[in-house]
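Whether sequence alone determines local backbone shape is best considered at the level of individual chains. When preparing material for the folding task, we compiled for one chain both its residues and its backbone structure tokens. No coordinates are needed to read the tokens, only the vocabulary itself. For completeness, the protein is quoted in full, as a sequence line and a line of structure tokens:
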Amino acid sequence: MNLYLRYFDNETLVYNVEQALDFLASIPDIQVTPDMEDDIRAYAEGDVFYPKRYKVRPRVYFIIIKTEAETMLDFKQKKALRTNDVVQRKDTSVLMHLTEERDGWYEGTIDFKRVVFLPATGKHEYRDTHFVARCKSISGLDCYNRIIDYLRDHVDSRSQFPSAKGKNFSFRYLGMWK
């Protein structure tokens, strides 16, 4: 895995942590500390692929990005982008099952932020709420919509509901209605 580093107009693509530390040491504004060195090594060896940003002074940072690009040109042209095929397949799978039409009984489970009144303080607060309902529906999305419609009529309007595509909603098909 290679590392792209950038500090204002200074940028480089390096092939190991030692080269990255040498590049950072060559910039007068940046003082490479043992903690920073350990953090950069941990980032380079870790599984995280998000860009990492380090504070040089207030509101001034340099960034490090892991990349599979072999040259700076490849990096600039985004030829070595890391795509997460597993996540993409899972998202399409969830969408397919969500909209798949199959008449019958569904059990939908939703976790949402419910607004409740606290009599002791006279104020309102958000509480995590787990709600399970069984309903007649034609798809998982229809089940979600029926649950949300019910909850909108029965809880405070400031409550926050998750997306049907998110991890806070799940459903299962129970069978055909009679």
